[in-house]
Amino acid sequence: MTRGRFISFEGGEGMGKSTQARLLSEALQNRGLTVELTREPGGTPGAEAIRSLLLDPPGEGWGKEAEALLFAAARSDHVSRRIKPALAAGRWVVCDRFLDSSRAYQGVAGGLGDAKVRELHQIGSHGLLPDVTILIDACGAEVTERLAARDGGISDAIGGRDAAYHEAVNRAFLQFARQEPERFCVIDGTGNIDAVHGRIMTAIAPMFDTAA
Ligand code: TYD
Question: DSSP string of 166-182?
């Protein structure tokens, strides 16, 4: 049995990741592949429960260490119960956010540091990395409009952090992509949904040659 492929989608708020993850998973299914479309934080009952704790925190919210530990714990459950079994069974996994979100949000913007986030990932998920990470990058005004249309101005505990935090997140993602060009595909997220989907299909085409 050939191991499946693991594709993650990353980017700041309002980049259209979830829509694009869904379109990619449909396109892969149309090619005859079996695909698991999933998301983080979440993807298993336990990780979805942790998601609620993170996005709607009780009391005064989490300290930065506790927040990173919760994301790592959710990921650990998701990796061991869903992602690894799917890959071992030959399925393709398309995941809306993964480790690089923790690196950008908790590690860089949140100030915990990349080394600690990676250490937690080593402990929780044996350091599993996607085969390909699609980073959707779009610029300011278009993103602000999308967010207003989607959230109606209401956002969760992390989405609602200030502009400086989210700018640091976006810069961090681009920096990661520069550091690991063999894993990341940076996709221009401007323009309509189909145009962005087309760019993603072009970018991942080489995966089909090596997945026979
Ligand atoms: P998500 O539902 O993907 O939100 P959005 O649609 O706005 O991208 O993710 C929920 C929030 O959790 C989002 O603000 C990013 C944040 N997050 C982290 O801070 N660290 C992580 O490791 C992950 C996976 C998400």
Answer: HHHHHHHHHHHHHH-TT
